[in-house]
Batch of 2 targets.
Target 1
Amino acid sequence: MTTEIPSDVMTIREMCEAYDVTPRTLRFYEAKELLTPIRVGTKRLFTRRDRARLALILRGKRFGFSLEDIRQTLDLYDRDDGLTAQRKKACELAVKRLAEMEAQRAELDVAIAELKAELADAEAKGLVPKHAA
Amino acid sequence: MTTEIPSDVMTIREMCEAYDVTPRTLRFYEAKELLTPIRVGTKRLFTRRDRARLALILRGKRFGFSLEDIRQTLDLYDRDDGLTAQRKKACELAVKRLAEMEAQRAELDVAIAELKAELADAEAKGLVPKHAA
DNA sequence: CGTCACAGTGACGTTAACGTCAACTGCTCT
DNA sequence: AGAGCAGTTGACGTTAACGTCACTGTGACG
């Protein structure tokens, strides 16, 4: 046996194409302990778990979270085992983040409204040659 | 005459306290041409215009825009004179930014919903000791 | 007149999230 | 054996937005 290598693993190239990231990025994430691909000799093999985590990482990034934030939150999806203490902490973190997000959205709403008003005003003043229908 | 210095100017210290920023920040913004305080000898005097711009800068930053983005948009509020071409460009920029903001808000809405669901799930499973009322 | 506190000017340091080499190491194919 | 290529490991470069010195300059005060 080759030390129990799951059958559905992917090489770094396959990962890059599948998720549209660079090899550098994947290695970087590994260094940051966001991913833990199997090391066969010197090469990396990404498991289903790694792919799930990567998907979550990318989603987190789209929302503007730092990799460090993401790393901590990842455990929320991960460990289905005991360690309720850890889990509780993860949830608290998520709740905090949730509040931050809602605050951010509220601010965005205000900004959007302001900008829209500003544009409408400029148009009304005829300062702008009607930009759209 | 001391070369026409407006009466309602503020020193760097006053600005720092009024807007809760550091001197370094104000000097940095000046270097980036976001602010243009009057230079009396070597000292800086911030005018009403500078204060208005700073307020807009800080608001922009809260929304996650880069200083470069902000610098360009600032002209939208500023020049009430001619130069319609420039003005048009500024408006287009604002419209683009508006779209980005709405997209971002949409993503945030999704993320918020997902997180909420996730938390509710965790609670339902009894994995977490009821974090709030 | 000394010195203090504040202002100002470089200029280098910092964090995040990678990009970009350079220089290997192994395979694999011929 | 040689070529070629994917993959790896450092290690330095990059952008943004300041922080943090170190040092100079200056007006006010006792």
Target 2
Amino acid sequence: MKSPDKHRKIIRAATKVFAKKGFFNARISDIAKEAKVADGTIYLYFNNKFDILLSVFEQEIGKLIDQVSLLLKKEDNPKIKLEIFITNHLEEMKKNRYLAEVIHIELRQTSKLIREYRKNTFNEYLAIIASIIEQGQEAGVFRKEIEPEIARQMVFGALDEISRCWHIGNDCPFTTEEVSQQITSILQVGILAPNN
Amino acid sequence: MKSPDKHRKIIRAATKVFAKKGFFNARISDIAKEAKVADGTIYLYFNNKFDILLSVFEQEIGKLIDQVSLLLKKEDNPKIKLEIFITNHLEEMKKNRYLAEVIHIELRQTSKLIREYRKNTFNEYLAIIASIIEQGQEAGVFRKEIEPEIARQMVFGALDEISRCWHIGNDCPFTTEEVSQQITSILQVGILAPNN
Amino acid sequence: MKSPDKHRKIIRAATKVFAKKGFFNARISDIAKEAKVADGTIYLYFNNKFDILLSVFEQEIGKLIDQVSLLLKKEDNPKIKLEIFITNHLEEMKKNRYLAEVIHIELRQTSKLIREYRKNTFNEYLAIIASIIEQGQEAGVFRKEIEPEIARQMVFGALDEISRCWHIGNDCPFTTEEVSQQITSILQVGILAPNN
Amino acid sequence: MKSPDKHRKIIRAATKVFAKKGFFNARISDIAKEAKVADGTIYLYFNNKFDILLSVFEQEIGKLIDQVSLLLKKEDNPKIKLEIFITNHLEEMKKNRYLAEVIHIELRQTSKLIREYRKNTFNEYLAIIASIIEQGQEAGVFRKEIEPEIARQMVFGALDEISRCWHIGNDCPFTTEEVSQQITSILQVGILAPNN
DNA sequence: GATGAATGAGCGTTCATTCAT
DNA sequence: GATGAATGAACGCTCATTCAT
């Protein structure tokens, strides 16, 4: 029977290799070497290279969902919930460089497969943002005329762009906390000065 | 003398092919066929496959810069300038599906070349956003505690995520105008309801 | 573990193909077909096409060195040693048509690699000639004013030109033995008639 | 009408380029650039790349033949004639690096075409050596049992190997004169010390 | 189950040759 | 005659995938 341990090892190795080289430049043998496994062994656990990529997402983003869900469960205030989501995402991206790169590099690589995939686990993650907005609107805390879907895209787009800039190596002179606060603040009260 | 017409034809073809298949899945012969030239002809105008990608950016993003610069020149109010930038970007992405895909798919290829490249033309485009924010702060229209760099990332990230969702084929029930207004509005006054 | 058998098969095939077509006209797929392996298999055993050429030399010339060294060990007389070298080389070239062609065709490829290479195994082979001359001089059998290096070049040049003519297809009406004796004789006593 | 001047310019350029890069690594455009002529122009004067190579030989070796023939005409003594041939060849090879490389690199490149060619002008050059030997034998100066064909091969092989070593960049601590004398001496009186 | 040698389709790129101007 | 842009066949090499052990 296939060992779940080896499955995990391969996923971890693939996450690292994809992050370092990008999906197309990563070779199966790189992943095999990183996982200390024979090339052929990988095909006992995955159908093909692309399947590995999908599994990396399932696994890693599943973890993200679990983690942030746990944090959000303890809080009722939508304002704070949004802040928690933002802070958690940024912190994770800063910590888990591999996942960050896999998301922002590989998520756009292509193609129908990814597109279909995105209707699954990853969209579940994004849906959390929309649901926070909706709860806030129901609670009268957020403006009703905001479309939760658009706001969700804004939030994720903003966060993902931030993490991309971090990992591109351009110096970013701000701490995670500062960035988190600024984004939260802009989202909450906008950029206008009081009398405008 | 190498014909500038052919150069343009190849760029156009490459934009289309990269958008449809992604950089790595695009074949030189695909581009050649699309441009109705021989494979070898491409190498009279470009050094290699990657050079084509860079040229596509230079060309297309140069156009974007020119266009939005022209529009912004006519306006002084930073609030409206920001709206103009947002609207123009979204409209262009909606219209020029190929450019949109090339940006959001290919901009993420890990590559020193792209990284270096991004310090050039593309960053020029992004710098426009930051400068609008700064002008607004100087004019007292935007909050001074906003970091223009972070806001810039938020804006571009949001817009890029929007355009990605459009082209991914997920139904987006909103018009360009609605999206543009919502984003502008969130950025300007935030998402909080009046008394929060 | 990569099979040494396959390594040998490829070397043998390459020797044949290089001899038949020359290095530049030889195709990797020709070698693969001749060796009855897949094209890609060749790259499990060699780094690139040029590496195959070098290996052919290492292998084949190594064999030549071993063989002639063995023969020379049994003999002390420098006169006879020289004759042995000459005869052995000519016999081998006559027998091993492929090696002969590889030497005289490929040895002349301008290439830093080959030049560096020649300082290794092949030059070892040539050095045998020089050392025979030197021994002869020490023993007082050969004239002391002969430069061993120049004589060495003469000997090898002569032998290589002979073998080239054989394989070029021009009829050569002499047996290996006759040629061997003539060359040995010219080298030993020159071409002058007794009273000149 | 095709200009003989341009024909000569291309030959000269090709000699240089072939010598520098070898036949297979030389590109038609290299030759065209060196000759300050358009690529296409070359095909007005030559049928194909290989034809250029043949023409280079015809031309350059023709010159060699003329030159050495002139020198030999003035001399009757076969001993001296042989010395003249040897000295002249070595001097030319030392002077005309391009021709030297073209001979020793390209002469072995390959193939049926070259082989047929060699029955022409180049063999004429080699025949000069044989005829000197024959004259010497008739005059009783050279041993009758020497086969002129074999001696010819020895002479040319020796000379060509010398010139190859020169151009390979290996240090050769001897002057042209020394080499010439040593080779002449070995050929004439052999390498044996007086009493052997 | 695990291995890693073997496979071979596939692609980026080169360059001799052609031909419209 | 001269040009040089255009052509496209050809090849070295890679690497995802398979399969005998």
